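Supplementary Methods, section 5.1.

A reviewer requested that the exact input to the structure prediction be made available. We therefore reproduce it here, unchanged from the version used in the analyses.
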Amino acid sequence: MSEINTINEYLVDISNISLTIIGICLAVFTLLYSFIQNYRDKLSLNNEEIRRGNKNISLRKQVSFYRTILRTFKRANQHVIIILIINTIQFISSKLAYYTIDGISLKKNISYFLIVICIAQILYTLILLVFVLKTYYKTTRT
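The structure derived from this sequence is encoded token-by-token as follows.
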């Protein structure tokens, strides 16, 4: 197999991986956004109760919990957006390189650069996964 075919296969693989991750990110973003909306509504109702004079301690604990969970979900969604943007750029770049660049040297450099970005993104995602799992086990500990 020629070198240009191998490079084109790399570019196709990168675009397929990026497109898959874009789909996953959109699903996770939508899920987190719906949770954010749900908890924001609950927080609003509880704040209204407090404004009406309800000084119940469990109500205040719920408000504190809702604020914490909202911050956590917003932070997670920010990371999802970063991954989504990187993958969108990576997908477009790999498609452009595949279809528009004829020079083997430039195409090779672009594909290697995209592979490095892909590896960095995998490491970023693994670090986030470790953080999420640590937080999960800390908060669900019995």
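The mean pLDDT is 91. These observations are discussed further in the main text.
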